[in-house]
Structure formats: C-alpha cells, structure tokens
Cytochrome c2 (Flavobacterium xinjiangense), 444 residues
Amino acid sequence: MKKVGNHNSITRKLYLSLGLTLVFSLTSIAQVAAPEAATPAPADAVAASGGDPVKGKELFNANCAACHKLDAKATGPMLRGISAKHEMAWIYKWVHNSSDMIKSGDAAAVKVFEENNKSVMTAFPQLSNADIDNIIAYTSEPKAEAAAAPTGTAGVPGTAAPENAISNNVILGALGLVMAMLVVMLFLVNKVLSKVAKANGIVVAPKEPTMPIWRAFAKNQFLVLVSSIFLLLTGAYLVYGFLMQVGVDQDYEPIQPIHYSHRIHAGSNGISCKYCHSSARVSKHSGIPSLNVCMNCHKNIAEVSDTTATPDHSKAFYDGEIQKLYKAVGWDQSTQKYTGKTEPVKWIRIHNLPDFVYFNHSQHVTVAGIECQTCHGPVQTYEVMKQFSPLTMGWCINCHRKTEVKMEGNEYYTKIHEELSKKYGVDKLTAAQMGGLECGKCHY
C-alpha cells in the first residue's frame, strides 16, 4: 500500500510550534520589577522669624493674595524672600500703615511705592506682629520644585502606566501566531486527507448546481411585496428623521479662540452664571461677557493651581490661555499696566435660534425664576461649553406644559392667575394655561 505521509513527523512539528508559542508568551508577560518608592519630601523648615508657615499661608490667602504673589509681580511686588530685603521692624510698620511711612519720607517705602506704579497698599492694623511673623515664615519657604516625570514609561500623558502591564502588541502578536498555526494545521490536515483518499481510490462527488438565492427570492411574489412595503416604510422613516434634524444643533461643541472652562469657573470657584452674563437678568439676550469682566479677577490671577490640571489639559495649557487673554486686552504683566494694544477675540456662537423665534432671557430668568441649567444643562461640569438642549419647538412647548408659574413676589400675574385658576380648577397654573402656547408668544 502507498504511504500517505508520516503522521508522527507532523505531530512532532505541531508540538514544537506550540511549545515555542508558550515560551514566547511566558517571556513576554514576565513581571517588571516595581519601581523604588519615592523618597519622602523633607518637612518644611520654619522661617528664621520664628513664625508658623501653615498659619502664615492662611493669613496670606485671606489678606495678601488679592494683590501679591509669591513668585511673580502683581499689583504689589513678589513676596518670596521679602524678609531678606527688609528688616522685620520695617515690615511691621509697612504692613500696619504703609501710607504713613511714605508720607514720612522713608527711602525704602518711597522706593517700593514708586516701583509698583504708586499703588497704595491697604493698611492692616488688625494684624499683630505674630501674624506678620507667620506670613513672613510662609513667604520665606523655598519654592517647591516640580517632581520629575519617571522615564521609560509609555502611555497616555498625565496617566501612570499600571504595574506588570502587558503590551497590547504582545497580545495581538500571540493571537496572530495562534491563528497562523491553526491555518497551517488545517492545510496539513487537508493535505493528509487528500493523500488518504487518493491512495484508497475514493472519488469526491461534485456539487450539484442549485438555484441562486436572489432568483428564488424574485419568484416568491409574497416576499417581494412584503420587502417592498418594508423598504418604503423604512425609507420614509429615515427621510422624516433626517428632515426633523435640520437646524438642530444639540451637543454642538466648537473650540473657542480662548479656552474657557465652565468646570473651573462655575464649578470649582462657584461663580454665578449671572455675574458674567449679567444682561440675562434685564435683557432679551444673555450677552457675551466683555474681557474687562475677565480682568476683574485675572488681573491678579496669571496662573492656575496645580490641582486644576486634568489628563487632557495641563497647568501649562491653562496658563497659556490666560496669556491669550492678556494679549487680547493689552495687559503687560511685568509693569501691571495696559499697553493700549488690543486684539479682538472672535468667539464662536453656540446657541442660535432662527430669526422668526422670539425668546427673552429676562422673562425666564428674572420673572419666571428659571435656573440657567434648565436649558443649558450642568454647565458647572463642562470643560468645553456645548448646546445641551435641542431648542426645538416641541421641546419648548413641553416645558411650558409642565412648568408651573411662580406667583411668590410676582404681582404681575396675580389677577390673571386668580381668574384662570378658577376656570381650570387648579391651585397653580402652568405656563401653557397662562397662554404660553399662543403662536404670538414666540413668533413675530
């Protein structure tokens, strides 16, 4: 009989390939030695003045941070290491009443006054010498150096790579090798079976021709009718859905020329929406805040806190956006003066109603007492502002149907509320029952 192949040889080859795969996989997923623990930072040294830097930081933030920074010039000079420039007795007098020292002709006081654009420092007679010692102790601390990023670590910036992590490339490579082995095995098995069949005189019967499925489907009139109706209904539904989305810009999230984080301002700092959008209380439009409103705070805030950074936006990114603001308003941070050279900021509008729709912010915000988040969503969580609501006619009508009119302190609606509440037999009226569904309310 004719030999059909050496099966033991094939088996040995398969076992050898499997063994090499296991060795390769075990080598690839070997554990990486854990990095050495970081050396703890030394404890903060107490300043030579004998003050407490922890208490000094609290006093500094409460009394000094509005005009001074530790490592940069603001309205007043930078204060880190200020104790090395002046004697403590002089600092006590300056903090308690700097104006008297300037009037008396003190040379050092006059020099500080002239170097800082003749800005008059607020007197702090309520601060004791011990309080000033604590502040000086805080300003005498050495500047903390940023921790160096560990080398040899791959991954997304701002995220630490997990220990003993297995590379995706290694896993994909192992899976690819296994798939290749399966293909080779199938090829070898087919080859062996073909030899066995040929050696034993076995002939494989050819396949009988069959009718193509599309021809069988075309001959069945019922299936053709049902499929045609289904396709017509599906097409009409898709066309209707597409047309109903024309002009609807929900979740529109453009990139602005200056990055403004509502998460930081409205969320972390708790700034009221109506502080920046003040015209929303008295006008039809909420208005775009002027850059002067921004400078009310950022005249002295040239950089953000380290805790503000996120994996997507670093501290350097936020500080760079503040510099864009300074460039737009013409603010020279070094001299603490406006240069007069301004640049317009081309903000991109997000919410844009059609011209035939009338919407009054003051009527909703002031009269109705509607919160901004009702229409604009949880803006205090947005890093980039977007359109939260669809702002469609149906969405507005549904809001009018379910929103009750607030009557507390609203005498404008008292008389009409009494009459309509009797008519509808309810205690509180909705905006729809007060005429909120009339066409002329929203359309010219």
